[in-house]
Amino acid sequence: MRKLVLLTFLFCTIPAFSGSKPVMETGKVISQDIEIHNLPSIFASGVEMSNRVLIKTDKYYYELTEDDGGWVTLTANTSINFYRAKKQFVILDKQGNKHTFSVTRVELIN
Fold first, then answer.
1. What separation in angstroms does the CA of 17 have from each of 10, 36, 82, 83, 86?
2. What pLDDT, on the 0 to 100 scale, is given for residue 36?
3. How many CB atoms lie within 10 A of CB 93?
4. For 15-57, what is each residue's pLDDT tens digit?
5. Residue ranges with strand state E in the chain
6. For residue 77, with 0-12 CB atoms within 10 Å meaning exposed, 13-18 middle and 19 or more buried, which class applies?
7. How far apart are CA 70 and CA 99, in angstroms?
8. Phi/psi of residue 4, each to 5°?
9. What is residue 15's three-state secondary structure?
10. What is the reported pLDDT for 26?
11. Is residue 42 packed enough to be buried (19+ CB in 10 Å), middle (13-18) or exposed (0-12)?
12. Which of 11, 40, 57, 62 has its Cα between 20 and 30 A from that of 32?
């Protein structure tokens, strides 16, 4: 009997949590800074890119740095939707591609 109750509980609760959508938040893009750095080397030259974004929400300013290599270009003074996944921010571009950002700095709005 216990096994039946446990299996019923698992089959009812797992689908409820696995299909949950993330909570979307809204912010305003204040600025974006995409930089390209040449990395000279003895064996080969390389390029390093960085993408920093400043977002304003109702309570905070967030400075974010993009983690993955698919750089997203955002327009200043426009609203964007994002959600949080653990310690990262995820921004969806116009095509629906996910871009993950790490928080570099947080500042409370007075």
1. 11, 41, 20, 17, 16
2. 78
3. 14
4. 445 567 889 999 999 999 988 777 776 665 666 778 899 999 9
5. 25-39, 46-56, 60-66, 79-85, 88-92, 98-108
6. exposed
7. 7
8. -65, -40
9. helix
10. 93
11. exposed
12. 40
pLDDT tens for each residue of 51-110: 899 999 999 999 999 987 668 889 999 999 999 998 899 998 888 889 999 999 999 998
Structure tokens at 71: 């750089």
The answer to whether 87 touches 77, Cβ cutoff 8 Å, is no
Upper half-sphere CA count for residue 106 (Cβ side, 13 Å): 10
